[in-house]
Amino acid sequence: AWLNIEVFDTIDSTNSYLMQNMSAKTHGTCVIANLQTNGRGRRGREWQASLGASLTFSLLWRFQCGAAALSGLSLAVGVALIRGLHEIDASAAQLKWPNDILVNQQKLAGILIELQGDMDGPSTAVIGVGINLHLPEQLLQKIDQPVTDLNHATPSNVNPNALMAKLLEHMVEVLSTFEQAGFDALREEWVAHHAYHQQPVRMLMPDGSEVTGVVQDISDNGTLIVETANGLQKMMSGEISLRSA
Ligand code: BTN
Predict the structure, then answer these.
(1) If we measure between CA atoms, which residue out of 12, 102, 115 comes closest to residue 56?
(2) Which among 23, 157, 227, 228 is placed 20 to 30 Å from 141, CA to CA?
């Protein structure tokens, strides 16, 4: 109810804007852009966009706890998106660890969380979300992974403003659960929607090596637990890229 919403026609990146103006912005500032000219994804990737192609926004949230306690935050946000997407009948939407949203193995949405603060002092998160609405052909050609959009993923007619409002409601609710009880309180719901639960996967490690295994579970702080040839391994989100095997 007390969100402070700013809407831009065009901006470089809603995440960059909030990161650069962090101290001037209050808790609960939400920046929505009709078009980002320099949208950013995880692991240094770009978030490709054109007018109307995707819903792009960022939410600034201040936490009492330090960055160390926020390891499950990006997964928590995934739960909020899943709730909102299922409400608009995108019922095939699933999570891909750590925080992509897939429909039929194709990417529908992504989350980019950037943190400022110490490991154990108060910290501020900029929670960026991009959801594909209607990807035009010339944009599809620039994207180097399987993607889909809500135009294909739901039979409903999606009103982007209504979806935006719904998603913010779910995000506020999930963030309050997360603040009070941690990711543990959302863990079962997360696992129930995981596209790769009990599935064979390949993981591309930061050093270029590849580890294969079967996904067993998600821990209460959001690490992925995989059964590998060397036994159970816990993967921290960071730099790992997960593929189905
Ligand atoms: C990913 O899938 O790698 C994360 C994509 C995050 C994209 C959103 S769009 C709004 C916000 N601003 C950015 O520059 N990135 C995030």
Answers:
(1) 12
(2) 157
